[in-house]
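User: Here's a chain of 339 residues. Predict its fold as tokens.
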Amino acid sequence: MAPQKVTIKDVAREAGVSISTVSNALNGVDVLRSETKQHILEVAERLNYVPNLNGRNLKSQYTKVIGLFLTSIRGTYYNILADAVYQECKKHGYELNIFVSERADNMMANILGKRMDGAIILNKDIGEKETILFQKTQTPIIFLDRELQGERMASVVFDSYHEGEMVAQYLFSLGHHTFAYINGNDDNYDNIKRLQGFQSGLMQAGIRLDEQYIIEGGFEKEIAYDSMRQFLQLGKPLPEAIFAANDLSAIGIMEALADSGIQVPKQVNVVGCDDIEISNFVKPSLTTMRTSFEKQGTLAVRHLIALITGDEKGSIDVLQGKIIPRESTCVRRLRNYRS
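Assistant: Prediction complete.
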């Protein structure tokens, strides 16, 4: 027998306040003292209260709406991913709502408040506490930034660790022995896994990646450009090969090297990740690890709908990458030099 649903009346009774006061606290209406609001929110959390923010959905089992929760919409990845999710939603008769937020409470209110049938999450601000609540409430969730599975919880992620290993092995096979890594964001799942995999692949060949050669890139061309120019000014030996966390930062690295009179690939090889369209048109064209933003978005929607309808249980779908060799890498014949 299913547990009885906790109502707003239950929260009000337990907190010792009126229903309207509870409503104001849950909806962020700025008319309460901070300690009163905090007390009510703690009571609601303890009771596992799930607010119903969309009363018109009460008469229907499904809203036919899916939520996509992001921390950013800037850059090629987010654009392609969001479009792929939207196109697949349309095929199945679902609407898509996109939320860009850093506030876990707002996101949880939307996910658990009967405004959508399930959610696709690429948002680090939804953490362990929220994940536990998803499991308690059996909310259909697909994660794109971590590996989790449950009765109605699944993940669709890139095989970023293995991709990092593959790049290390590829560069080593070309005869390179000194390396650098252009870091993305320290709290990004794919960046963390790519770096770990790259380090592991180098270690398998008996090579350690020096911390001084992990250079900040922030997934942005401009940041990577500035970081590489600063690194070059230090006068340290050039790495023979550089692996960047994404293509945009790899392109920034190549521009910084060119502006410093350093030739790619003759002096330094560069490898990116993602295979965005521009990577084939820059000069030299960029060797990259091809991932598939479109496939990730499409599979996320398909798995989520299957969780919503009960046609499948949660699983972890890991998408394999592939190295695309282009002009920015070559077999090493001479040691690095500065022109």
